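Reopening this ticket.

The earlier resolution said the output was attached, but the attachment link was broken on my side. Pasting everything inline this time so it's all in one place.
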Amino acid sequence: MRQYSAAIYANENLLLSEVLERIENDLPTFGINVYGSSLAGTMVTTATDEYHVNSAESFGDEEILIVLSDPKADVDAIRKFDGSVIDLTGSFEGLMDEVFTIEDPVTYILKALDADVAAAVATVPASVFGKSGIDDLLNQTRELFAFSNAETKVFDERLAFNMFFSDGKDSLLAGYREKLKQDTGVDVDVRMIAVSTGFVLDVYFKKEVKSNFTFAKASEESFSTLSDVIGADGLVLISATETRATFAGDYIHTIVRQVTDALKDITGEDE
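Inline output:
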């Protein structure tokens, strides 16, 4: 069996760790090197291995590059990479020869729908803002019970036992909502709730739709909590009528699955 080599560029370790562990489990023929800016010089540990994070200036002869974080000052170094690129950031489409774009989970679902969407409501988790978002949520929750104030990295307002809305140009979620609109053409009403990774998307159609939504598995059981959905493998179709559908899943895992699917497409590992 052929061995493959891949580089991963990341500047925070939540998504990085998940991608590494999925590749270790699903694609053991891959050799992985990790690169970054803010993480350069550190070690990232998974359940079975550990990785030294190198500077982006020191790319080797890897065949595939996975970009998980905004490259910022490392754009020029990454553009010199000679191979296939799997890009979550949207920074390299049209700039490099072979780019596989990884979509935000809400965008992924809306683009997969073969229907005219009238409206959509996305209830998203703290992990939209990466590890910093989850850290803020955990610290705020802990400090509420300690009757003290937590220092935050992302959230100026309290998310713990609360909800954020995306209305208003000064909303923390306004930029995320605008990006969704640019990518999908749908003005998604976004709310953020106090969970780490689970998300829900309610989609309303302009006319009756008859579809089995093959990108999400139909619920064979009744999910009573979002935690139950997160424990399922892949996106779940919670309910559907001819004019509405509700999807749910794990925000991080939906991204990770796209990454491994792209790796399989590039290498033919799923054939």
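Reporter confirms the inline version is readable. The CA atoms of residues 126 and 133 lie 5 Å apart. The chain is about 30% helix and 25% strand.
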